[in-house]
Amino acid sequence: MKIHPLRVGRTKVPFGQFYGGLAGADFDEFVTDKDHFIWVPIHAYLLEHPTVGPVLVDTGISPEQTEHVEYYRGSIMEHVMDVDEYDLPADETLTAQLVRLGHKPQDVRAVIITHFHEDHVGGLNLFGHAPVYLGAGEYAAREEKVFGLVPLAYPPSIAAITDWRPIEFTGPAVGGFGGSADLFGDGSVIALPTPGHSPGSTSVLVDHRFLLTGDALYTIRHLAVDDVRAIQVGKEEQYIDSIRRIQWLRRAIPDLLIVPAHDDTEYGVRLTAGLVAGELSEEDLRWAKDWERETFDEAIRLNPARLPHFIPDPDGGPVGRVS
């Protein structure tokens, strides 16, 4: 099955949000930090399923969300999120990305969302005609208030969807996961529970070759959870447990390629570029595995030379980059 990464803009995030989870920082600190921003890509994925048809995993952001004050007016997100948090060029909208591959939004036969965060469901209203699959835990928590202030699922971003398909993970164990869900009955698209980042976060195993993690892993480096960890607003113990299970899956499937949604590392850039045509070459596969061997040891600890560090903007601006 062909799998196409779709770059749907980028988001500006505090360095500490991605990498401050072992630094003793807390949520308030990274929300108020305006001096250590980085840009990271936002990816959705189009699966060319041979019988179902085009299937999307996540939907990125929408042009409406870039009009920040108007879109989030009356919500706490109007004030907590920066007005320039999202950047979405016209040629990177989800519709433009689908057209590039010969599809219109109405051609999509099903959507799988990894979780309800805004940079993963921003384009969801384009697919009111399609069933939307998501973890049952995520669906059950959709109206729960984050910090007691805003629903997990921002109502305007999901208003068009009527056919929700909550996933129960009652299928066989896979790697470190005690349950799974074969979404289309042919073993090609298997949902796995990776809660922690959100209540019912879900990762998607495609053809037993690619694991689309959503934000269960922000980048491939986060696989080394004892060395690199994101700040958690949910249950950190669940977040860590989910990564441990992904580690076991990687051991069980040696050729597995882990594909996080926001990976700005050399690994993420090359992997998504290699998959533009829908299939990874043997050369790119060898390169990815060599990169992993140079980055992680057998215990999945990170090569100290590849620990992330914030590099300030040389002109003194607030947005830097990661080493």
UniProtKB/TrEMBL annotation:
Coiled coil: none annotated. Signal peptide: none annotated. Residues 41-262 form the Metallo-beta-lactamase domain. Its cofactor is Zn(2+). It holds the Pfam family Lactamase_B. GO terms for molecular function: hydrolase activity; metal ion binding. Keywords: Hydrolase, Metal-binding, Zinc. Belongs to the metallo-beta-lactamase superfamily. This is Metallo-beta-lactamase domain-containing protein. It comes from Actinoallomurus iriomotensis.
